[in-house]
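Obj: model holo form, ligand = adenosine-5'-triphosphate.
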Amino acid sequence: MIRKETLLSWPMIAFMVLFFISPLLLLAGISLRGEDGSWGLGNFAAFLSDPFARGVLTGTLALGAKVTFFVSLAALPLVMLYWHAGKLLRGLILICTLLPMLTANVVRTFAWVVLLGRNGPISQTLLGLGLTERPFSLLFSETGLIIALVQIELPLLLLPVFAVLNRADRKTLEAAEVLGAGRWRAWFSAIFPQIIPAVLAGWVLVFASATTSYVTQSVIGGARLIYLPQFVYREVGVLFQWPMAAAISILLLASTGVIMLGLTMLARHERLQGHA
Amino acid sequence: MADTGLQISNVDHSYEDKQVLHNVNFDVPDGKVVALLGPSGCGKSTILRAIAGLITPDRGRISLQGRDLTKVQVRNRKLGMVFQNFALFSHMTVAENVAYGLAHLPRQERKERVARLLELVRLTAFANRFPPSLSGGQQQRVAVARALATDPSALLMDEPFGALDRALRAELQSELVRMQDDVGITTVMVTHDQEEAQAVAGQLVVMNEGRVEQVGSPEEIYDHPASLFVNGFIGHANQQHATVTGAGRLKTAGGAEIAMNRTLNYLPGAEVIVTSRPEDLSLSLTEQPGAIAARFDRAVVMGRFLTIDATLPDGTAIKAQVLRDGGARPGKGDAIWLIPDTSRLHVFPGNNQIN
Ligand SMILES: Nc1ncnc2c1ncn2[C@@H]1O[C@H](COP(=O)(O)OP(=O)(O)OP(=O)(O)O)[C@@H](O)[C@H]1O
Ligand SMILES: [Mg+2]
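Output (holo structure tokens):
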């Protein structure tokens, strides 16, 4: 049964089963455990029937969606710039994209605490320009959190797209131009379809990463803005409700999983087959 | 200067600092097909790209119906182009691909036009398929339909049949000829296949290393090659070094004395290269005056003909094609004599010499 060609993958598979699949199954098992020792979906029912908890769930998914949206918005001009750039500028953009990733998430988050604060450059600049009456803080607000997350997650979308642009086929772009298409139409019909699979992959990464970034959410969002990761932490660390925490984790996993699955199915669409 | 058709005048182009086109000149008469041919890397695609506006030549003028194209933007040139690798939009259906250049037309008119073109290239049944699911020949036809859809004032095709097998290639070539008879679009077709060029085009432009070597009809080019390169590139040419010995007289390096039936523009003593087509040599098993002595290597039957490979005394290979008769065939290593049809021999300057 064990074929020679698959032999090399067995250690990795064993590792995954031991340290990822089995804890996950364990977690799923715990989530079915009721407070009174019975088994069932009680924890899920309790979570979903609590309006506050439901709000946290939808708030977390909405955060993921908003961050993904603004990351895409921020990425578009950079992608355009990268496309038109020569070798040198491309290298520069790539380094600037990679550099922040070499810094720990915690460090980047605390940098944003400084930037977003009352005495930070954002507030002070707007004050200096007379655009605001008094200094303000973006800390502990969703706007601030989204700004920080967009910057932190941006490379996850840019990198796969840049990789595709490096080997993109320019012939279809030329074909579009010869057929009379303007610059934008030509780009969107020739180059954009080629990067869609990379964009979908980037969205999955950004979404999953934004919804689960415990550190950034809790440091910049503060105690008033609660998202699922903090909710889980509260159940475990404060209330010692392991079964409930497990149920919430499974819910978080399931909702990001569904979105990932949806995006992956989209990437398999017949229209994208030539670019996969 | 005439103001119909497509004219390419004195075009130079360099990539970085390497010049790849040198003073290219040729005309495509209105509604006619011209084939550009030459060895790989000689600049054929570069000329097409210059005509399409995808590159700007360093010098020269490209005009269509008397209008200078050099300053016109790519998208306003109203040309049709079939790319070497088709360059179809793989996320669009066949019909959407064909309709791409028709965005300015009203919906109904666009639909009718697409239907008509798909019928022309016999792909109606494939209208809703995506290009990656089509065969090479079908993709090729989509590319042609897409290029024709905009009713282009000229059609540029870059080795459109390059990727196809022999049978399909022949079928599409005759389809193109048929279509050209119906529609008659001024066309430049790039190919490195001389048979294809002769089958499809009325005029050939033979290129080598960025220069146009000769422009002419297939007959002119075959019968009166302007250079040794053209002679060898279009059909096979046997080459022999020779010395001019008098008015219309040559002596080959192998010692054969050839009396041409015309005078030559060379001074006696000049080093030349004399070439012959395989079919212009006949075979003799006995020594003849003016015959070229050679050693027989092998003979291959090609239908009614016999293709003979032989070696000259100085080691050069020579090929002859003769009608097959029942006569005795020489064996390997036997001495044979090849008698040239002197009216069809070509003489070119030898190395380092100017005509
Ligand atoms: N983008 C480019 N940058 C630099 N050099 C190029 C570029 N495109 C082509 N060349 C060079 O220009 C010369 C002519 O190229 P071109 O593509 O016109 O040849 P071709 O005749 O179409 O050859 P083929 O039959 O192989 O398609 C070649 O020497 C090639 O290496
Ligand atoms: Mg080419």
